[in-house]
Amino acid sequence: MSNPFFLKKNHISLKEIFDLLKMDSNSIDKDIKINDIKDLINAEKNFITFLHSKKYSEAAKSTKASYCLTTKNLKDYLPTNCKPIIIKDVLLATSLITQKFYPNSIEDVFDVEVKKIEEVNLKNKVIYGKNVLVGENVDIGSGCLIGHNTIIEKNVKIGNNCKIGSNTVIRNSFIKDNVSILDNCVIGKKGFGFFPKNSKNIRYPHIGIVIINENCEIGCGATIDRGSMSNTEIGKNTFLDNQVHIAHNVKIGENTIIAGQVGIAGSSMIGKNVRIGGQAGISGHLKIGDNVDIAGGSGVIKDIPNNTKVMGYPAKNIREFLRENNQ
């Protein structure tokens, strides 16, 4: 269910892409059309993708993309069906091409098309408080409650028996059945992605959505960013405490518990049955295994295997940490 909500050009020629990147396009077949840009896993034939780190070499080996933005050192990880486009700054190039495909994916201004819930066909389906606003392309299931001053902006699907608190803003999200989202949450806005270049910050497009699966609870003041090139997803029966931040592209497995003031940076993957203590921080592009316990206040800067307990900064096996700090 990737990027169903963003305006997209049908295709872009390979020559347009080379010209955009200021690369020599004289030898490029002008008739070659690229249908979309996606990450390595979700890309298909006639798509372009990107490989910027050896960390994603395994995914690169099985990509179905026809072209890949990458560096000279990484190109050999690509399969024969995927032709490398060698470029110095892979992520910047990816950003420029994504903007070309999805022109409305950069800005994230408030939804000017919202209406009072009394003016749309949802008013008889839900119980709602005062001053509730609803945007276009919104569907809400039966048995839902929506609190005061909440704005369900454009492109949101909410399942049955969900509870949305007061002063909450939701957009570009798919929320499944029996989910509780408490007060003052912001869900589905763009993530914190940009590239400093020539004294300017170039914004990174966010064409993914937020998916919150069944029976989850999202605590007060939580912020969940939508994905950039893939979706941000919360597994079923996962509970987030107050003041938790989930960045773009993060995947959290089912039955996970995250305490207050935890921050998870972009593109990290959290396994099933994980418990994360308050004020812990998890760096980006990491893989946290299943059945992992992370003690409060820990700083996680590398992958953690299954069935592990860690604490400290940098986070390490809890027995090792206690032995070193009890000498």
Structure description:
With 327 residues, the chain is mainly beta. The chain folds into 2 domains: 12-101, MurE/MurF, N-terminal domain (Udp-n-acetylmuramoylalanyl-d-glutamate--2,6- Diaminopimelate Ligase, Chain: A, domain 1); 115-325, UDP N-Acetylglucosamine Acyltransferase, domain 1 (3 Solenoid), CATH 2.160.10. The strands form 6 sheets. Strands 8-11-14-17-22-25-28-31-34-36-37 form an 11-stranded mixed β-sheet. A 10-stranded mixed β-sheet has the order 7-9-12-15-18-23-26-29-32-35, with no helix packed on it. A hairpin with a 4-residue loop joins strand 36 and strand 37. The N and C termini lie far apart (52 Å).
List the helices and strands and how they pair.
Blueprint (H helix, E strand, L loop, with lengths): L11 E2 H7 L12 E2 L1 E2 L9 E4 L6 H5 L5 E4 L12 E4 L3 H12 L13 E2 L9 E3 L4 E2 L3 E3 L3 E3 L4 E2 L3 E3 L4 E2 L4 E2 L2 E3 L4 E2 L4 E2 L6 E4 L2 E4 L6 E3 L4 E2 L4 E2 L7 E3 L4 E2 L4 E2 L4 E2 L4 E2 L4 E2 L4 E2 L4 E2 L4 E2 L4 E2 L4 E2 L4 E2 L8 E3 L4 E2 H8 L2
Parallel strand pairs: 3-4, 4-5, 5-6, 8-11, 9-12, 10-13, 11-14, 12-15, 13-16, 14-17, 15-18, 16-21, 17-22, 18-23, 21-24, 22-25, 23-26, 24-27, 25-28, 26-29, 27-30, 28-31, 29-32, 30-33, 31-34, 32-35, 34-36
Antiparallel strand pairs: 1-2, 7-9, 19-20, 36-37
